[in-house]
Amino acid sequence: MKHFLYSLSILVFASCASINKDNKHTQSTITPEKLHQDVDFAYQKLQEMHPKLNWYISKQELDFKFDSLKKTINKPLTPVQFYFKLQPVIAKIREGHLALRIPAKKFNRKEIKVLKNKKGLFGRFEYFVEEDHLYIVENKDSVENIKPGTEIVSINEIPVSDYLKKYRELISSDGYNTTFQDYYLKDVFFNFYVAEKGIMDSAKVETLYNNERKIVHLKRESKNEEELEKDKLEKKRTEEKKVNDYDASTSSYNRNFKFLVKDSTVVYMKIQSFSRSFSDRFYKESFAKIKNANSHYLIIDIRNNYGGSLFEINQLYSYLAPEPFVLIKPSQLTSRITPLRTNYFRKSNPLQTTIKGLLYPGYFFSQAFSVYKGKDGIAYYKMKENKLTKPKKDAFKGKVYVLINGGSFSASSIISSKLKYDKRVTLVGEETGGANDGTVAGFYSYQKLPNSKIDLPIGLLLIQPNIDFTNTQKGVVPDFEVHQTMQDIINKKDVQLDWVKDEIAKEKNWGEMID
């Protein structure tokens, strides 16, 4: 026990020392010459490992952008300042999964505990972004009596429009899609803001509501005993929470299932994220209920679903497919050795490193035998999702509607594209944030820029739905376009779901309203 406590104290001390060292580096400036080296390093690694680097931008144009960037770096910068220089160029590649990790202050356990016992400063609201305007659409805690629909005009006397213009340059969807940015920006705006300004305990905010301007002083409040107890309860994993994949940070379920009418003929299934966690059990139980109820209509809602597991979308598709199918095309790599560049030992403590070291031979041969060279001379990666999959015995045979919007990204776009191509569903809503013809993701190689120490995760697999490509360089376009306004959100009016309900009601000529 004495040796264990001694070893533990050394690990804690080393961890604190590492955090202090990283924070000191984040606040220090780096010479232009070293930053130029980081720019070259980033571009070199992208050319080595990204399998579709010039999908949306020519090599000549991208060469020019990286060269031009170096010319603008003529004075020392901190890693955060450098991030705001380099990331806009990375975003011009137009690959939504490709982005630098923004450097931010790291916290020790004591600091994390203090923050957990306090409420967020800006995180207590839900937001809506439109052009260069940021609105509050929900204020659950009635903070300062701010009404839904209120615009945040400035923070600490700096116009929010300046931040929005700056932050838009950091975000790209796949290709020339235009719907993704506003959805994503509303979720990450304050991530960028805090990375720039640091965590604050108060802020002076100028608001605008019904043409009336007002100054509001936001303060970070401590949680009361009841709220702290609620946090503890939310962390407890019940069977329901497991199967529906409960997210304590948002107090919501990733998956929801319910019948919309008394006779159970219409089913609504909301999937907030393809997390894979307990997905096999959720779909098995849900589609068994659908079959037993003899339901005729299924509405699958993947709006604001940023994607996730290919395994899960392949699983979901197997409950919708009328015949055997192949979800995605063979996944392309830049070379046969690319899968071995996934930073196997990344973020491992000494014990984990030892265990991983013992398992490494198995990992090495598994990755090596998963790669093959095609007749075209290109390296491909073997995956279950690019092999033939049979439909499940409880596969749904009725009519399917899928709700999509600009927040439907990555795996959500892959399954939407495949379903549309196979004419299996009716898509309703807005163009997806992810591309119709695929994306680059799969697994990543985490490169660290040598001087700024900024992480650059590079997707290694070209993932494309098994379809005839549209070559539009845009997202999956719905069969019926229905837009939701900010006022619809404030009024909690789901016009896209209502549109589907109305269509079903017309088709069945039902007298009763769908709940």
Structure characterization notes:
By secondary structure, this protein is an alpha+beta fold. The protein folds into four domains: 20-105, no CATH class; 119-219, Pdz3 Domain; 254-328 and 384-508, 2-enoyl-CoA Hydratase, Chain A, domain 1 (Alpha-Beta Complex), CATH 3.90.226.10; 338-381, no CATH class. It is 38% helix and 18% strand. The protein has 15 helices and 19 strands. It has helices spanning 2-27, 32-49, 59-72, 79-91, 109-116, 160-168, 180-197, 225-235, 239-243, 279-293, 310-318, 350-369, 411-421, 486-490, 495-508; strands at residues 126-130, 133-138, 150-155, 158-159, 202-209, 212-219, 246-247, 252-253, 255-259, 266-271, 297-301, 331-333, 371-373, 379-381, 399-404, 426-429, 439-448, 455-463, 480-481. Strands 1, 2, 3, 4, 5 and 6 form a six-stranded antiparallel beta sheet that branches. Strands 9-10-11-15-16-19 form a six-stranded mixed beta sheet, sandwiched between helices. The longest helix has 26 residues, at 2-27. Keywords: Coiled coil.
